[in-house]
Amino acid sequence: MKILLLRLRLLGDVVFTTPLIRALRRRYPEAHLAYVVEPAAAPVVRGNPNLNEVIVLPRNSGFQRLGDDISFARTLRRQRFDVAIDLHGGPRGSWLTWASGAPMRVGYRTAGRSWMYTHVVARPEDLSAQHSVLKQWELLAPLGIIDCDRSRDAVEMFENVAAVQRVEHVLAQAGVGPNNQLIMLHVSAGNPFRRWPQDHFAALVVDLAHRDPRRRFILTSGPSDASATRAIMDRIQARSERAARAVSHPQLDVDDLRALIARAALYIGGDSGPLHIAATTSTPIVALFGPTLAERSMPWRDPRWFAESIDAGPLSCRPCRQQTCEPGDFRCLSRIRPEDVAAAAERALVAAEAEAEPRLRAILA
Questions:
Q1: Which domain, by its residues, includes 226?
Q2: CA–CA separation, 139 vs 108, rounded Å?
Q3: Which contiguous run of DSSP H or E holds residue 74?
Q4: Which of 110, 111, 284, 304 is most buried, by CB atoms within 10 Å?
């Protein structure tokens, strides 16, 4: 059997599909599993041992995209897939699923496009509290795969050895040694509706730095908000020279980002792709939720690993579609207090030390 999975666009959304890959391999151990992904998110699935093939679809626009898609569809059709599963339901993914020619084509019920599938699955409302992993898991029902267990079916991304080596070099240059406690903060998001205020990030770093001089901090940001790290570092410098000396902001690709998070003692960040990359490690997580709900987007990981969500509490405008801020002041983010995030960070670090202690005793025994 040959099975084709398609999930285009965003990094975090591709991470959320990785439990499905494992489930399909478990159900069909001899199948050929192929995954179509766009370049930015390809590192998430590249190297996944449960996949036989990762097919990267160029992300162009206009007539270039039209030509790419026609050529790409012909390539898919020649591979004669038995099953094609559209894990998104956007226009491009729907068309490619249909154009693959697979006899069994699974996708969400979508106005104007459901005819492209042979098996249609009801699509939950976008703002529903159903977790994104469970929402996509329903696309496996036509194949008889029903139960999803978070401890067994966690998200995953596999370690890149070269990235680990690059990260060790970055940390050495930043003066981060084995006795330091590394805290990583991702300080941006793809749109302003998910960006915690820069002053709040600065206050948090200063607070955590003054609590323990061993701590070192790395700030990262995405390409859509690349200036955020520098702006926050300037604010930290203005508040505390000592804290500023403990902060750096390297440029990282996706594999390096994952390797760095795995090395850190703690990850702090909002609901964006790096948060879900963090979920593929055992590193403790403090997740900041503004317009989105933790019930829908909380890191989907083994419950053994610490993860805590922080939000501004009940608001009549939350969750929202992130097109217009109804109150106009982004209160779902600005009302998340740095002191509350700092308290959660301390809980995470204590939990991590408690988890590490039995393993250390076993090594020394």
A1: 161-364
A2: 8
A3: helix 62-78
A4: 284
Closest of 345, 324, 277, 300 to residue 11, by C-alpha? 277
Sheet holding 32-37, edge to edge: 53-56, 32-37, 2-6, 83-86, 104-108, 119-121
pTM above 0.90, yes or no: yes
Rounded Cα–Cα distance for residues 48 and 35 (Å): 10
Contact predicate 301/279, CB 8 Å? yes
In a domain, 281, yes or no: yes
Which of 143, 170, 204 delimits the end of a domain? 143
Counting the structural domains of the chain, the total is 2
What pLDDT score was predicted for residue 63? 67
In a domain, 310, yes or no: yes
| End position of a domain, from candidates 73, 108, 143 | 143
In a domain, 150, yes or no: no
Q: Which residue has the tokens 């955590």?
A: 208
CA distance 269 to 44: 19
279-301 residue pLDDT tens: 999 999 999 999 999 999 999 99
Domain identity same for 96 and 173? no
Distances (CA, A) of 308 to 109, 114, 244, 257: 33, 38, 26, 20
**131 and 182 both lie in a single domain:** no
**b/e per residue, 284-315, with b = 16+ CB within 10 A?**
bbbbbbbbbbbebbbbbbeeebbbbbbbbeeb
Helix (H, G, I), strand (E, B) or coil at 358: helix
